């Protein structure tokens, strides 16, 4: 199995309270296993507040809906042993 690396990492983002914010990370191979999104070291699941998706097999997207002050912090994307933060 090839080592999946991060081709294009996360970018720092400033957003107004109540708005949605989207983070994207591109990986080197499609169908990457062991992918994880975290906010402030808490693993995120796909639900009504967090939309996690994959486009074209390589572009992993996290959308945080209607952010509040409690959402301030570091977003982390991890694939295998590689990470990107914003």
UniProtKB/TrEMBL annotation:
Classification via Gene3D superfamilies: Immunoglobulins
GO CC term, one of those recorded: cytoplasm
Keyword Transferase in annotation: no
One Pfam family matching this protein: I-set
Localization per Swiss-Prot or TrEMBL: Cytoplasm
Domain (Ig-like): residue spans on this chain: 2-86
Main location, first listed in the record: cytoplasm
Record's keyword terms, sorted: Cytoplasm, Disulfide bond, Phosphoprotein
InterPro entries noted in UniProt: Ig-like_dom, Ig-like_dom_sf, Ig-like_fold, Ig/MHC_CS, Ig_I-set, Obscurin/Obscurin-like_Reg
PANTHER family: OBSCURIN (PTHR35971:SF4), SI:DKEY-31G6.6 (PTHR35971)
Protein name (Swiss-Prot/TrEMBL): OBSCN protein
Species of origin: Peucedramus taeniatus
